[in-house]
Amino acid sequence: MNKGADRLLALALVVVAIGCLARIYWPAIGEAFLWRGFSGPPMDPASLRLAGFLVAAFACLLGAGLFWAGLLPDRSGQAAGAPLFGRAAEMQDVGRPGLRRVFLVLPLVVVAALAADRFGPWHEGGDIASEPVEPKADEPNPGEPKANEPKGQDVASAPPASEPAAPPPAPAEAASPPEAANPPAPPPLPTQPEGHRDSVVWLAVAPDGHSIMSASTDHTIKLWDIAAKQLIRTLGVHKDMARTALFMPDGVSALTAGDDGEIVQRKLSDGAVLHVFSSGGNGGVRKLAISPDGKHAISGHDTGNVIVWDLKKGAVLHAMSGNGWSVSAVAVSPDGRQALSGSIDGTLKLWDIESGKQLRRWHGHERGTYGAAFTADGHHLVTGSGDYTIKLWDLDSGREARRFEGHEGTVYALALSADGQRLVSGSLDGTARLWDMDTGNQIAMFDSRTGPIYAVAFTADGTVLTGGNDRTIRDWPAAGGDSIVLFAGAPE
Question: Does the global pTM surpass 0.70?
């Protein structure tokens, strides 16, 4: 009887151990765990949590083995051949009651911990939505200036993570909505020799509304004339994937950034390099934002660090560490006093730009945050995520004010209209969607039918621009309908 009970206990411990291992290697958490491992800071909560479940799994398996082998008999059961009475009976060692009690309580504690980790208010989420990247090739040290760039570089001095995190794998979740069997093949896309040769991952419209800047995984930054529908010039080339290209408020220069860890200020007139800011050990620049007055830039890095740059002095103002996960979204408030960073574990952080202090931290999404924008009043913020939702946050109360739902893939990019009444979102589900900010209702959906959309923007007349996997930049009518390929990609 006791032997049968012990074997049932052994099986229960095995089941709990499997639960721990499943929590570690669940597709989302497992991807992050295998990607980052324990290379983050020593006290990184995510790493400690996963390490705890790993220890618990091994402890449960050890207990299961002891119970199965009969090495933890119940004291109530007498060992075979042991005397029933007398001094010999009192000295007979018929069990390990303390150890047995430990392994009886262990599965209950572990199950409670698993439930708390999954459903508790401190749950850290963690399904990691992949970003579009291409394999890294051998490249020069990002801290060294290019031969044709005579200006000095400013290297951020924040302590990097023990090892820069590798970028996530290329997005694989973009899937077109189900269609009828054997749908007709889409017409071939137009091409132009000067177009991008890989995915378009960023779009920005000039303050005067006449031109567009685009960044691509082909490493290039291009400047386009909207009215003439032609390339003005290739503004610059990064040593690795270009991530961001922003017009400076002065109207004569731009700030571009990429996975090579460089932030480069360039003249719009000819692409000449004015200054190079190097992030050094802080890693590649995943996202970049500029304050409205042009005094500061905020960069988010793949090591989890956030850097505030003084653009006038050409130096680092603050370097904030502690995200633990790669920063996948940044935004600056309209008054230029606050910045938001979002990471791929769904955590959002609000920073004071002047002091570099963290004002608030909260878990905004169940998966990574990939787009963020402040509203014009500075009291609200919208964020997009790998959990397929867009959320409007009230920054005064720290609460979710509204949710925009409808996407069937990671919401990768967001942009607000000039009047603040509309929001456009781009998603790995291959669609861009237009939303009413007051109601949260969807106004229109734009289906590219060619794969993920990585970049969105509004033109001066309110039409929607998108860039994505098909290498094109498209113009969509504000009321909905089919797109026009404004700038085609290069021939494959």
Answer: no
